[in-house]
Design a protein that fits this description.
The protein has 218 residues and is mainly alpha-helical. It has one domain. The two termini are 22 Å apart. Helix 3 runs antiparallel to helix 8 and helix 5 packs antiparallel against helix 6. It is built from nine helices and no strands.
């Protein structure tokens, strides 16, 4: 599995398809947190919101690196399509972790903050909630499910809007609403961790659905 993740990361680096979601993330974080001196709870909520579309884009780009024939060859060499799909999710998660580290540091450099441990933990968990949710959307809207990427893009945009605006339904909306109203980071860590569990469940479901559709198409 580690070898597959290294392979996919190398292919992604060589393709340079990571640049667009990376630049989008950096741009959104810079705009949303520039010269910010407010509480880090709200700041990291904004950073987490920026993570959502970037993780969708990154996952869709990662899945679309190889055509169907090349992916079949990789699947045979790796021991099955499921292993390749899990490695794809693992690679996307690894890249999202790099973005998460960046999202933790940039607001501290551009604004005036005195971060505590609870702030950093909350920032990490909040970004992972959006990363896992975005990866789930990216998988079900990828080339493995949709041959026409125009349809996949429209669905991805609809799902993103639903996740951001679906009050009381979407883990992202519940988390962001709670963080905007939280008195401090320490009180928001536990509820945000619950949403992280929900987001991980969504990602696992997306992997299962994508695998089922891939098997039917094979």
């Amino acid at each position: 599995m580690i070898a597959l993740i290294r392979y996919l990361s190398t292919v992604l680096l060589l393709s340079q398809r990571y640049l667009a979601p990376l630049l989008l993330f950096l741009g959104l974080v810079a705009v949303l947190t520039s010269s910010d001196s407010g509480p880090l709870t709200a700041t990291y909520a904004s950073v987490a919101g920026a993570m959502l579309p970037c993780s969708v884009w990154l996952t869709m780009a990662l899945v679309g690196l190889e055509d169907r024939a090349h992916r079949s060859i990789v699947a045979v060499s790796a021991g099955g399509h499921l292993r390749v799909l899990l490695a794809t999710a693992g690679t996307a998660a690894a890249w999202c972790l790099l973005l998460t580290a960046t999202g933790l540091v940039l607001p501290l450099l551009s604004g005036t903050h005195a971060p505590g441990l609870a702030d950093l933990v909350l920032g990490t968990v909040a970004q992972l909630v959006c990363a896992f949710t975005g990866m789930a959307v990216g998988l079900v809207c990828s080339r493995l499910v949709f041959r026409r990427q125009g349809h996949a893009l429209v669905l991805a945009l609809v799902l993103l809007l639903a996740l951001l605006l679906g009050k009381g339904v979407s883990p992202v909306n519940i988390m962001l609403t709670r963080l905007q109203n939280a008195p401090d980071s320490a009180s928001a860590v536990a509820p945000t961790s619950v949403q992280l569990t929900v987001a991980a469940g969504l990602l696992a479901t997306a992997v299962a659905v994508t695998q089922a559709i891939t098997r039917r198409k094979a």
